[in-house]
Design a protein that fits this description.
The chain is mostly helical. It contains three helices and no strands.
């Protein structure tokens, strides 16, 4: 019985060491693959850059690049022109229907904000002036011998 258990333990240990060995080999293979992949990528990029540099030496390629740049500039210019035409068309349509454009609304908003600030400052100035004038009004509103109209608070006609 002890011999069988010993054989089983030996077999189990061999299997474990075989698995460990396989794991180590897989990790080494992965590392080699990663290293080779990086090396291949660097070499490929270097070759591509060299190929591009070599191609740029040819007059036809230079001309094609120049044409590409010119076309790109023209396209950008025409895009801006079309955008301006569209904006002016939209503004004319809005004007026809008497609808304010975004720019006009923003201008009005700024104007209203400015007016609102002025009104608030005037209100504050009037409030502070009325507080200062209140004691003077109290003295002026002392009862006088002149009869007044009760509904309007003005001197009555009989007193005049």
């Amino acid at each position: 019985m002890s011999q069988q258990s010993s054989l089983l333990e030996d077999g189990f240990e061999r299997i474990q060491s075989a698995f460990k060995s396989v794991e180590d080999e897989v990790q080494k293979a992965q590392k080699r693959f990663e290293d080779q992949s990086q090396k291949f990528s660097k070499d490929a990029n270097k070759r591509i850059k060299g190929f591009q540099k070599e191609l740029r030496k040819y007059p036809a390629v230079k001309r094609a690049e120049s044409l590409s740049q010119d076309l790109n500039k023209q396209l950008q210019g025409r895009t801006k022109l079309v955008e301006k035409q569209i904006e002016s068309g939209i503004e004319s349509v809005l004007g026809t229907f008497q609808i304010a454009s975004r720019g006009e609304i923003e201008k009005l908003d700024k104007k209203l904000s400015r007016i609102s600030r002025r009104l608030k400052s005037l209100d504050k100035a009037m409030d502070s002036a009325s507080v200062k004038a209140a004691p003077v009004k109290a003295k002026a509103s002392a009862p006088s011998n002149t009869p007044t109209n009760a509904s309007t608070g003005t001197p009555s006609e009989s007193a005049a």
